[in-house]
User: Which sequence fits this backbone?
């Protein structure tokens, strides 16, 4: 093995870490809003991702049959639709379910778990139990090789770019917009926010729906790297909670840092030991750190 | 209902009923005659659910839960076989009635439902199970209650029971010839083994490694297992790039499978640069993976939908007529289809529905109408069958590029491989 080979592997391995980081970040973002900001334990979060993934599949299918010459362009449009669909479903779910359970976190856990089972069955009845794959546009497949022996996955680059855009979008919305102001006010002190004229119920619904919409975008992005089946959501939900809890529930910055930390640990250990062992090591590290810092990496400074 | 609806006159209804009854008895005449030749008291001495006109069998698969993805094909194929047998007049003149139970991808549920089928329903045979875990869960019950299970999946071997007929391949039938072929085709010196982390891939890889090292006298340069559901393979792919194996030998399953092949393709590991042989990808899996991600890689199976023989043409046609023109048929689906036919043959050979007699009669049964060609039941209750190598195509089908010249003997307890 020559030096340039080693360089290439090093670069690709670095990219593998970054790409896992953006995957975890995308998974965690929606949940960071719903769980972190609102305190709702949404067990159906994975299913909202699956909604996004199936939206992509449906649109790719429609494009293929009705407008095959638009195949190259449908993907960004489909992601926007995925956001919208997940947003609307989230809106409905908040109205029907969640708003009655804000003061009963454990019941929320049970209710949303039931919801996730129900949604899985709906996916199964609608799209069938078999895993499906949307047809991806050509520009999303294959690799970019700037040098001999160096292959950077295009889908990884895409997911990375998307997660940067979504994260910046969320940060800006949360810290610069009226909605963000209302959310932060509601999180800090619900009664006081109410007293100053903020419609906290409306804020809750919008926040929940936006969180779900972002989950939809994440699911849409994952169709480029993983599988879409009725139970795909359950593959993501544990990692999503892990990222948010480890980062410190109420802190978006914490989510970013924790996704980065977990991704790098995981991908580096995976390179040097077997896959199962790497997972064990990563999880034990998280357990130890959470024992020392139960509030997560970044605890927000709110008076309780 | 519209207001001016005129009810059908009573007499007309009665006439229709009579016509129906006449048609029914006509088709039943041949069956009844056969049934009289084999009186129920004779063919059923163990209180099975067999009457003069009907025999009840069970079907036990996961129609819900994670495994529904894989088991749906088997459910459909078994039902198709049973429908076809009924259309031919049934078994010993008795129509087959199916009781469907859902194992729900949960192993204790499988055990419970198998007990229900055997003890309450007294079914004459059960077609079912998919994962090894579910088979292990029901095996003690089938042995205790003396039931008969037809198990369709290729599996790791190391098992043999009077009460099970294994219609899929055991590990050596799938692996050894495939590796021999790869080593000849590619003149391979080095292999990289990848699998999901549970019993089937681990046992298969153990057999594979022994064969690669002891028989082929070549080298394993890496062996990796990832948890079920793992979806990030970039680090693994880099490891493979460092090891530069001649052949990647893969047994990744479920959702991981999709992620594995998508990411291989994205990392530039495609068929023109890398030789890959898998034992876990059938037409069913390619649906999820996407033909463009899999194109050019090889799969070692006993059956591919594209097999060119008259039996298979008929089978594919019938399957598509029943389940839609886009339905795909994988290796296990075909093995599921064999179950009811093998059972019918065994019952007819034994002249009885009794499980002991079927178990004894099963060895040596031949099926010349099998879509995969010709199969024969071995004394160890596994099937003699051929091994075939298919190359994945963009459209999701496989092109058969090699076929073992002889039927391969099933060897569930391979010496020197444990």
Assistant:
């Amino acid at each position: 093995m020559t030096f340039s080979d080693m360089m290439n592997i090093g670069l690709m391995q670095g990219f593998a870490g970054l790409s896992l980081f953006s995957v975890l970040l995308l998974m965690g973002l929606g949940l960071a809003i719903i769980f972190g900001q609102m305190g709702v334990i949404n067990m159906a979060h994975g299913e909202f991702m699956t909604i996004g993934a199936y939206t992509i599949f449906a649109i790719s299918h429609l494009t293929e049959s009705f407008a095959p010459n638009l195949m190259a362009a449908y993907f960004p449009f489909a992601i926007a639709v995925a956001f919208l669909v997940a947003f609307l479903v989230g809106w409905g779910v908040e109205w029907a379910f969640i708003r009655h359970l804000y003061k009963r976190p454990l019941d929320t856990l049970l209710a949303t778990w039931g919801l996730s089972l129900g949604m899985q069955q709906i996916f199964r009845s609608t799209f069938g139990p078999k895993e499906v794959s949307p047809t991806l546009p050509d520009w999303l497949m294959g690799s970019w090789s700037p040098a001999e022996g160096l292959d950077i996955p295009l889908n990884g680059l895409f997911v990375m770019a998307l997660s940067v855009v979504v994260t910046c979008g969320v940060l800006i919305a949360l810290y610069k917009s009226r909605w963000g102001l209302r959310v932060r006010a509601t999180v800090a002190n619900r009664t006081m926010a109410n007293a100053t004229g903020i419609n906290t119920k409306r804020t809750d619904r919008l926040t929940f729906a936006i969180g779900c919409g972002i989950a939809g975008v994440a699911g849409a992005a994952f169709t480029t790297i993983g599988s879409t089946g009725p139970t795909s959501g359950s593959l993501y939900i544990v990692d999503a909670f892990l990222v948010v809890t480890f980062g410190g529930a109420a802190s978006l910055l914490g989510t970013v840092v924790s996704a980065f930390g977990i991704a790098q640990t995981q991908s580096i250990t995976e390179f040097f030991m077997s896959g199962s062992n790497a997972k064990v090591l990563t999880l034990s590290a998280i357990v130890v750190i959470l024992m020392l810092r139960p509030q997560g990496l970044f605890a927000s400074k709110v008076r309780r | 209902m519209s207001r001016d609806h005129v009810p059908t006159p009573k007499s007309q209804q009665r006439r229709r009923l009579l016509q129906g009854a006449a048609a029914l008895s006509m088709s039943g005449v041949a069956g009844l005659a056969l049934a009289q030749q084999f009186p129920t008291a004779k063919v059923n001495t163990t209180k099975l659910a067999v009457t003069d006109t009907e025999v009840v069998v069970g079907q036990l698969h996961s129609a819900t839960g994670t495994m529904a993805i894989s088991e749906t094909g088997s459910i459909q194929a078994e039902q198709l076989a049973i429908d076809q047998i009924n259309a031919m007049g049934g078994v010993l003149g008795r129509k087959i009635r199916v009781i469907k139970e859902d194992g729900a991808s949960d192993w204790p549920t499988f055990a419970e439902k198998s007990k229900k089928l055997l003890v309450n329903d007294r079914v004459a045979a059960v077609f079912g199970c998919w994962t090894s875990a579910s088979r292990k869960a029901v095996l003690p019950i089938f042995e205790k209650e003396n039931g008969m299970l037809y198990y369709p999946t290729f599996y790791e071997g190391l098992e043999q029971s009077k009460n099970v007929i294994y219609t899929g391949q055991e590990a050596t039938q799938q692996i050894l010839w495939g590796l021999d072929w790869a080593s000849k085709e590619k003149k391979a010196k080095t292999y990289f083994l990848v699998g999901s982390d549970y019993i089937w891939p681990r046992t298969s890889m153990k057999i594979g490694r022994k064969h690669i090292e002891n028989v082929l006298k070549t080298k394993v340069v890496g062996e990796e297992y990832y948890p079920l559901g793992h979806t990030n393979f970039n680090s693994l792919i880099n490891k493979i790039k460092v090891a530069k194996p001649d052949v990647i030998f893969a047994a990744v399953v479920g959702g991981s499978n999709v992620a594995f092949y998508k990411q291989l393709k994205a990392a530039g590991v495609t068929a023109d640069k890398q030789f890959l042989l898998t034992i876990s990808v059938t037409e069913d899996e390619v649906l999820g993976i996407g033909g463009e991600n899999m194109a050019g890689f090889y799969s070692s199976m006993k059956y591919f939908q594209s097999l060119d023989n008259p039996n298979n043409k008929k089978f594919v046609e019938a399957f598509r007529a029943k389940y839609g023109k886009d339905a795909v048929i994988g290796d296990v689906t075909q093995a599921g289809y064999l179950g009811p036919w093998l059972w019918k043959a065994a019952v007819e050979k034994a002249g009885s529905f009794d499980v002991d007699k079927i178990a004894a009669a099963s060895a040596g049964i031949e099926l010349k109408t099998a879509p995969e060609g010709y199969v024969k039941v071995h004394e160890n209750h596994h099937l003699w069958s051929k091994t075939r190598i298919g190359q994945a195509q963009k459209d999701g089908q496989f092109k058969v590029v090699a076929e073992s010249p002889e039927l391969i003997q099933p060897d569930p307890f391979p010496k020197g491989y444990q």
Observations:
- The interface with chain A takes residues 64-66, 68-69, 72, 197, 224-227, 229-232, 234-239, 241-242, 255, 257-259, 262-263, 265-270, 284-285, 287-290, 292-293 of chain B (CB under 8 Å).
- The mean pLDDT of chain B is 89.
- Chain B is about 45% helix and 15% strand.
